[in-house]
Design brief:
By secondary structure, this protein is α+β, with helices and mostly antiparallel strands. It contains 4 helices and 11 strands; from the N terminus they run αββββββαββββααβ. A hairpin with a 2-residue loop joins strand 8 and strand 9. Helix 1 packs across helix 2. The chain is globular, with a radius of gyration of 15 Å.
Length: about 180
């Protein structure tokens, strides 16, 4: 559980600290532009006109939107090995978040299904990282021993406007063999 705790805290912080230092990778802007992450054997449809970029310290590339209010909204994916149920995985992550983010406010938690009927847990929170109030939506998904967290981050002020974009992208998340 300590590894799980460390990995999650690192990823949440890096979403804020490094989002400006990602290396851009071109992607066309047409409809249904699927992003395949071969290393993780997953794909999803990022919001239209968002860039796919490598991020120092992250295994998988991120999707990032246009910079607004001093912050670049983004979607990142983290994979961990976890033998328990999806619900137990989500609960463990939430417990760790509450330890790390003393200002964390849970806005909602609900079951979620992707377009392929993959079960997920959706959690929306507000918290403060490095003096910036953020709105973060987490989608916890899993296949067997592999669990994934899709983290969608935006500034708290105005961040709710991106909720539908984030949900549409998360709904397209698909595992590949």
């Amino acid at each position: 559980m300590k590894t799980h705790h460390r990995i999650f805290a690192t990823i949440l912080t890096m979403a804020v600290v490094c989002v400006g230092c990602a290396e851009k990778q071109e992607r066309s802007d047409g409809p249904h532009q699927r992003f395949y992450e071969a290393a993780g054997r997953f794909s999803y449809d990022p919001p239209a006109k968002w860039e796919i970029a490598s991020m120092p310290g992250l295994k998988y590339r991120i999707a990032r939107g246009p910079r607004t209010g001093g912050f670049t909204p983004n979607i990142n994916v983290v994979e961990e090995s976890f033998t328990g149920s999806l619900k137990a995985y989500a609960n463990a992550n939430i417990t760790n978040m509450k330890k790390h983010f003393k200002s964390m406010k849970t806005l909602s938690r609900e079951d979620f299904k992707t377009n392929d009927d993959q079960p997920a847990v959706k959690l929306v929170i507000e918290n403060v990282q490095q003096g910036m109030k953020l709105r973060q939506t987490f989608y916890f998904l899993g296949t067997g021993r592999s669990k994934f967290v899709v983290t969608c981050t935006a500034p708290a002020k105005g961040g709710a406007k991106l909720d539908s974009l984030f949900e549409k992208s998360a709904a397209t998340f698909r595992f590949h063999k």
